[in-house]
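Teaching assistant here, posting this on the class forum so everyone can see the example we discussed in section. The complex has two components, and the goal was to see what a joint structure prediction looks like when all of them are supplied at once.
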Amino acid sequence: MMRVAIIGNSHVGAYILAREAIEAAFPSVSLSFFALPRHSFSSCTYDERGVLHAREATHPDLPRQIDLSSQEAILMVGQSFALDGLAQLIGEFDMLGGQSTGKSRTVSGSLVTAFLDHRVARYCHKLAEFLRNDARCVVVPAPHPATNTPELDTGAAQCSQHPEAPRLLRLWQKTVSHQMSELRYGLMLQPQELTDGPAFSPARYSRAASLPDGQAPTTADYTHMNEDYGFDHFKAFARHWLGILPAGHPHSPRKEHDHGLGPQ
Amino acid sequence: MSSPYENLPARAFWLSTVGRTDAPGLAQLYSPKVELTRQTPLMTVGSCFARHIHQALTRDGWNVLQGEDMLPHMPEKLCHQYGYNLFSARYGNIYTARQFRQLVAHALDGETAPSPVWQRDGRYFDALRPTVEPEGVDHPDDVRHARLEHLRAVKEVLQGAESIILTLGLTECWLDVATGLALPTAPGHIAGDYDPAKVQFHNFTQSEVLADLRAARDLLRKADIKARFVLTVSPVPLVATASGHHVGPASTYSKSVLRAACGELQAEDADFDYFPAYEIVSTPIAGGPYFAPDGRQPSQQGIETAVACFALSHGGNVPCLKDQDRRPHMPRSPDPTDPQCEQILLEAYHK
């Protein structure tokens, strides 16, 4: 069996929901899950034996630890890579030379670039310390919010809904890719087939699209994805990073790379 | 036999006062015309020494106005790299009295203020503050937009200030021939091209400095802005001179002219006072001179001594400038999805 741990924050939920489908499609894969309390690296200890422990009380129904020592791969999902910091910045400033949103102050593109360099580098430094730069780990940014997300004034949705979103998110992705290239971890940006344009996920993948009839969605249901997304995203991960296809078809990552489909 | 020196206070005598660094000794270095408290709104502006004054007063809890604050969003180093939070607004170094007069005029003119632009490698720079965007911006229109935004902030700071702490740094200046504008640096250093037909060197005289400072004050009064001035002179010598003289005597000329202008205004004009930061850092009057090993920049001890003198002279306590971080930190905005996130996980586990 190929043991894969999926860890991170509340975005782990999409994979937990898809567990049955994933294990059916990938019979050679065994999954385990862990969510960091408060989504904070400092809330956990990664001990010398390779066990990740919650240092503080978690909800009694959530696991308190996960043994990563025997895992072939670790998928760390839902990482913000300082996108919240960018959202706060554009919440107060317009981009100089960009489309106005009526703010009284602007920031230049080069300052935003320098700001992102600083914030993403700091984030990656914490990431590297967290799992000691373990090469088994592939880090996944949080998915873009769904196209039908109601207007939000915080977080990633604020970036996606900003009129300068394509430019800002392109810059953010470039910065994340550059900073992550310094680490031994892999980086898996959101696959193009799971996006709707540069800033959104398709509405059908949102939790809001899968809620039972009569249940009103919360804002988090537009920024968190559902079982379908969990499955499709894992499938893309398995193809690129584990070299396997659904139903256990072996596939060489080298062959993918040679065809221009290598790890992102 | 009587002498005019009889009954003068101890501070009038070199031997009895010079070199004292105790609180009463520092307090007697300066007799303010107007009492300031830590609540008095202050504007800081001037040459690079003004940055030190700005930071030391801010750390010591004085009400230093900040018209273009970026610290809640970025680390201090990055703010400073882009000209934020060095002074009360993002004007860069204002070395000369002429530049200050110009800044006041432009801030009050607003939309009609000129906006000269320099180029470098296809990027565009504000010629009147070329360091605030180290990489320049994409388009000349962006320079103008940012400049107008900056001038609005400067006007607000001027309107809010009760006291303007203006540090004069230089008399040497480059003037744009076509517009007469005083430039903070010669074109060709940071951006732009040096063309002797387009810029000319000028070394201001004392009467010119006096005229510029008085004109700046008059502009403020005309706009019903009541702020008074506390002048200082930067103790930092010239890094280079274009006067044709040795940089040492050229520095002395500059500082002497500025110091004499400050003295004249302090003596004759109720709107102007002089705080002796120059003397504190560059002479032995308060235990100095206080220079860093490079012999040019003031040492931290010198800056702290100057600010201690400022506070004590205004009846305050000896400031504690170390281990204090009064800057506003970037608040973590509440994420409305936080409580919902755990619910999402629990639902997934319980499916």
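For the discussion questions: Residues 250-264 of chain A have pLDDT under 50 and may be disordered. The longest strand of chain A covers residues 2-8. Think about how each of these relates to the inputs above.
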